[in-house]
Design brief:
There is one protein chain. By secondary structure, the protein is α+β, with helices and mostly antiparallel strands. It is built from 4 helices and 12 strands. Strands 1-2-5-4-3-12 form a 6-stranded antiparallel barrel. It is elongated. The chain starts with a helix and ends in a 6-residue tail after the last helix.
Length: 277
């Protein structure tokens, strides 16, 4: 009891002041129209701001889920684009009316780690053979090609990037038929060289470079970049084309792995010799 009395003596005046303030505030808000409207508007603004801040916090913790969902949608859209590019010219695309019947399927995969800043650069993606990833599959992003799967485990795969001194991609000049090997120059992540283009080729700056389709890694007609420079290879009768790409691999969070029908049969035929039975 003595403690309660001491507490009331010490804080009683403050408590009485707060009670009287509350009573005054209530009278002002309830019996003064303009002040009441200001109070209601202020409450609504504060409530709206709190709700927005709360939603931002919830969205932040859902970013991973949202990104995964967007990546799946992008995979389906890019898959349709790839199949259409490959088969639209010979009017055979209409044969593939369902997802299960298309010759190329894309598997979206988040990037788990990156090895960059070197002559030989790699990604590790967070999907492996348990999710359908195999060695020697091509890897895309929405702005172009990314690399090749070179090693897989149950849940992870290693991707050799096109930004790697060991990478060679078969590429061609759009609508002109000339093709060669695309190599990374090492100068920056968006500049490459297309080698072995004959001097008589009518190539100009601004021409589009596409995948040739002459390997099992990538289907034909996929965008790579544009020509931004033409040089004559020293001691050769060929051009060397400087190619600028859209994608910067340092900025990627997701990639799309190409799963192609009957690819093993094609590889077996390509690898067979004249005397094979």
């Amino acid at each position: 009891m003595q403690n309660l009395i001491q507490f009331l003596i010490k804080y009683g005046y403050l408590g009485l002041f707060l009670v009287l303030q509350a009573i005054c505030f209530n009278l002002i808000v309830n019996y003064n129209q303009s002040q009441g409207e200001i109070w209601i508007n202020s409450v609504h603004l504060a409530s709206s701001r709190i709700n927005n801040e709360s939603q931002d916090v919830r969205n932040y913790f859902r970013l991973s889920e949202i990104n995964d969902s967007l990546a799946l949608v992008n995979a389906e859209l890019l898959e349709q684009i790839v199949n259409y590019k490959v088969y639209s010219k010979d009017n055979s695309y209409q044969k593939y009316q369902t997802k299960d019947s298309v010759p190329y399927r894309l598997i979206q995969a988040p990037i788990a780690s990156k090895t960059l800043g070197l002559r030989n650069n790699f990604f590790t993606i967070a999907k492996g053979w348990d999710q359908g990833i195999q060695e020697d599959q091509g890897v895309l992003c929405f702005d172009g090609i990314v690399g090749t799967v070179i090693k897989t485990s149950k849940h992870y795969s290693k991707v050799l990037l096109i930004n790697n001194s060991e990478s060679k991609i078969s590429a061609k000049v759009k609508d002109k038929g000339y093709f060669g090997n695309l190599k990374w120059t090492g100068s920056d992540y968006t500049t490459f060289t297309l080698e072995a283009i004959p001097k008589y080729a009518e190539v100009v700056i601004g021409d589009t470079i596409l995948t040739s389709g002459y390997s099992t890694l990538f289907p034909k007609e996929l965008f790579i970049g544009v020509v931004d420079g033409i040089e004559v290879e020293e001691g050769s009768s060929n051009f060397s084309l400087s190619v600028k790409t859209k994608q910067d691999v340092t900025l990627l969070d997701y990639v799309y792995v190409i799963d192609q029908d009957n690819v093993e049969e094609l590889r077996t035929i390509n690898a067979s010799g004249l005397n094979d039975e």
